[in-house]
Every structure is written in structure tokens, then in C-alpha cells.
Amino acid sequence: MEHSESLRPGGYRFFYDDALFRPGTDSFLLSSLPRLKPGLRVCDLGSGTGLLGLLLLQREPSLTVTGVEIQRAAVRLAEKAAGENGLTERLTTIQGDLRDIRRLLGAGAFDLAVCNPPYYAPSSGGIAPEEARRTARSEVSCTLEDVCRAASYLLRWGGAFCLVHKPERLTDLLCLLRETGLEPKRLRLVENRTGAAPSLVLLEGRRGGKPGLTVEPPLILQKPDGSPTEELDAIYFRTTEDTP
Closest Cα to residue 18, out of 41, 2, 39? Predict the structure, then answer.
């Protein structure tokens, strides 16, 4: 069944379907990491139904976002979102396999690449029986290395690659980014509460960047009483303040 929701009152609407991987907190958290500037050219690798692109455009309307998504059903919803929000010139989606990125898009064509990739290797537990969930959650259609190589190819010299992943894959992330010419530059851990073990990592690499990693203060999701932190409320557009 198809659904739609607004990012905030009067804001952009996004679409999703129960048969596809449902939108989650990860995309919202990832959207807070890039340092957005007017006019940036952005590529969303494995863009799904276009939620991450809409989140970035909600924060900086002058961006142009190109999604790359392998599942036709997800591309259809992303195209619907672009049309419904009047963003057909700023939010486009290419149906294709990011492993064939050289046939889809030009080298060095983007200032920023973003990705909410599959987290789990095929050998790391149960694989979802539904194709859409299997593709979104597990590295069956592309690996972390595939994602990093695609981002490196797409970015101009000095361009940034931002992604979200699980803490247990941090070593793999750091090694693969450097191996593919994307020097790790910013790392932020996500904690449900202060002092809790991290549940996610947000990481930025830079094409051709110099060595030097900044570890930023953790992103805390809940206060001691269980209510959302001010930063999480800002990420979800629940306040009138700009997202950090």
C-alpha cells in the first residue's frame, strides 16, 4: 500500500510503499551531516524513493539532486515525489545499478555524494525474503566497496561523500574510503542516550583530502526522560530553528 507524509507542515511530501523498504531514522540523521551550500550538485547513491534527496532540498532548496536507484518501483515513487513537490528540475532519479556508474553519469560531475547503504554482508545473518528489503538491507546487489568506488568516481576533486552505517563496520569504512581516494575527514557517532553504545556512525570522506580525521561530539537522540533531544527535533523539522 502506498503512503505519503510531509517532512514538516507545508513542506515537501515523500512517498513510500509497504512493499518497499520503509523510510527510517537513518536517512533523517544522515541528512544532518553534509555541510550544504547553495547550488551544490548532489548524487544520492541507492536513493530509494527519494527521501534523502527531499530532506537535503528541504534544508537547501537551491541544490540539484540526482538519485541512482536499481528498483523500478522505488524510482516511480521518487519521480512522483519530484512531480508533486514541483522539483522535477532539481530532483531526478536514474534507474540503474551503481556498480555500472561509469555508464550512467560523468566522472567528477558532483560536489557531494550521499548514501544510506545496505548494512549487512550476506553472511552476517538472515536475509530478508522480499527482494526490496533484501536489496536495501544486505549487500546482495552492491557491496560497501562498490558504493565507495562509485562515489569516488562521481566526485570532483575536493568533493565530499557522506554516509551512515553500523559501528561494527567502521574499520571497513575507514579503510575503503582511503583505498578509493576518499580521505576520512569527519566522524560522528549516534547514541540513543548519553553514554550508550553507539547505534550508528555518520562519516564524511573527501575526494583527494589530506589525512586528518575530526571526531565530532556524538549525536544524542534521547534525553534521560526518554523525550527527543533538541537536535533530533531540529533534524525532524519539529522546531523553527535551523538544523545544525
Answer: 2
